[in-house]
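B., you asked whether I could sanity-check this one before it goes into the benchmark set. Here's the sequence:
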Amino acid sequence: MPRNETSGFGPHDVTMPQLGMAQDAGKIVAWLKAPGDAVAKGDALFEVETDKATMEVEAQASGFLTGVVASEGDDVPVGQVIARISDSAEDDSPAPAPAAESAPKSDTLPDGKQITMPQLGMAQDSGRMVGWLVELGAQVGPDDLLFEVETDKATMEVPAGARGYLAATLAQAGEDVAVGAPVAILTAEAPANPVARSVDDAAKAQAPAPAQPEPEAAAAKPAEAPKPAPKAPLAEGERILASPKARRLALQQGLDLSRLVKAGHPQPYHVSDLEVLRAMPEGQARSTGATQASRRLTARVKRPGLEAFLNWAQAQGVEDIDAALAGLLGQGHVQTLAIERVGHARSFAISRRLSQVAATEETPELILRDLRGSFVQNVELGAEDIPVLTLLPKGKGLTLVLECAPEQLSAEAAIALLNTVAGRVAQPLRHLL
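And here's what the prediction gave me:
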């Protein structure tokens, strides 16, 4: 009989997850388990529809599905408890209120291991919290996914890295957190009063009390605040922090993100910031496009392991080899990648698992132009609307050529992208196993 992995600490609450940055509710499409059914951790539990996609949600614990309070077709706010996973199928007690409401507030943080915002990219200085993947107070292991974070390049799930109980969360969905800043605390014992704070709450709790002014200073007329210095022009190659979707939409609509930088609008930029950009006076928000001088970088791989990887993928049951190739070369950099050959192109949504990479109709963030079977030995076509990475035959090896406009990728980002992809072309299995 399946047992709840948190047995001894009460039933596990099933809540509506946050599957996207702007999602505040989800519609229950179908329950994949019936009340009283046994479930194992990782089983598909229910199907939910958001404004972007329909996805299956996995059970986060083992036991029996009980206390179902949401029906198919219901719109449920993010974080609301919709069922529970209990040790017994006979548990008919009502599902408790959402953890955010039931968790008592505390001004004191528990003692334990601090989990900080990781640096997921070479030039990353902050990450936006997309959402927590486990509930406050839950027990986690080192490899359990703890939270989801969005950087300027991708959205990634971050493991806990240690064993313990999630006793405190110090950032909430939608908040930007500096790299190295604490986002959670894990404790060895189950917390009696878990703490949930926002970034602002955590900063206020750590900030020293303001010094009281001297009587003479208080009576004196306050000095005029200095006017802020005008924003310096964007330097050549300076990196603009923006989410992949915002960057893609800006490119499609001809919007110049550097205008937001010059206007002093805080980074990183997200889709909502594009409204500010569109509201700028005509002629100020439009991009110069890809007509300016483009970046062109090349890399050489003398002994590529790509064919061995594709054979391995087939042995693993991956039917769509283009999907496997897209997953290998796009993972960690983009969310959508197109494989283009002569007269044929397909786009794929990138996933951390090769088996979950799937064809999509979305506009890609990167085009992989595969010319390995052609007679072409060199390309210099200039920047296009989307960065293009070309694979060319070179003796027994391969040449990789990356072409893009400066506003699409900074010099640093272009070098990092090409270097990473070349390493995966050379030793793909090393990067996946």
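One thing to flag: Residues 244-287 form one domain. Otherwise nothing jumped out at me.
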